[in-house]
Amino acid sequence: MGQWQLQDAKARLSELIKSAHNEGPQQVTVRGKPSVIVISIEEFEAMKRRRPRFVDLMRSSPMVGEALTIERSGSLTRDVTL
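and the corresponding structure tokens:
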């Protein structure tokens, strides 16, 4: 991943964008600390597609169809050591 200081990123924005498109994510730092990542639109769209809905994730679990027994304590409180 490329790394850019903010002042360089501002001065060479076109180059930063080309690098994000051709080489992958580019990190921009502010005062030496990572601040943002610049990515191409293709990479952003791919990231959006990879995120399954929670329901779909649960339905694809290898535990689908297994009987689960969940036992709950009937007490209203529990002992906590502080």
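(Above: one complete record from the training split.) Residues 13-23 form the longest helix (11 residues).
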